[in-house]
Design brief:
- By secondary structure, the chain is α+β, with helices and mostly antiparallel strands.
- It has one domain: Aminopeptidase (3-Layer(aba) Sandwich).
- The chain is about 35% helix and about 25% strand.
- It contains 5 helices and 5 strands, in the order βαααβββαβα.
- It has helices at about 15-30, 35-40, 40-45, 95-110, 125-135, and strands at about 1-5, 55-65, 65-75, 80-90, 115-120.
- Strands 1-2-3-4-5 form a 5-stranded mixed beta sheet, sandwiched between helices.
- About 15% of the residues are buried.
Length: about 150
């Protein structure tokens, strides 16, 4: 049985391996932006979260025995909640862990009076788009980015 609990920002290093798996997944699956994902660095990406008021940053992990198997990071800025990053180990997908992680974050955002709750998903990531649709999220805008050719 897995347990789900919040951690403080100073403990965020425990998700580094899961974050790296998430980065690698996007690197391999992205048709146009593999290089962008390849060049992402955990420490640089995570440093940005250190700028948030600790009450407006939520980091939740899922742990099975002694192994971290999932995480969710969310932020709130001026009544706008954002699911920043979510990952569940491939071997544990489909067991409800992702839904439970996101559910705790949605509840937190609603308790903090968020008027808008959003998530950014890669256009190419169909399974994740479908996951979020089941939770009531739908496309609102489409941000397009020019591919930098070498």
């Amino acid at each position: 049985m897995s347990e789900i609990f919040d951690i403080s920002f100073d403990k965020i290093g425990v998700i580094k391996n899961l974050w790296e798996k998430n980065r690698q997944y996007h690197e391999v699956s992205s048709e146009y932006f593999s290089e962008t994902y390849r060049s992402m660095c955990f420490d640089e990406r995570i440093k940005a979260f250190g700028e948030f008021d600790k009450d407006m940053l939520k980091i939740t992990v899922a742990k099975d025995n002694d192994e971290y198997i999932g995480y969710c990071i969310s932020t709130i800025v001026e009544e706008k909640g954002e699911l920043e990053s979510l990952h569940v180990d491939e071997s544990k997908r489909g067991t409800g862990i992702g839904k439970e992680l996101v559910g705790t974050h949605l509840e937190w955002m609603k308790e903090n009076n968020c008027k808008v709750i959003g998530v950014t998903v890669s256009q190419e990531n169909e399974s994740t788009i479908n996951f979020y649709k089941k939770l009531g999220f739908y496309p609102n805008t489409l941000y397009m980015q020019q591919v930098q050719r070498k």
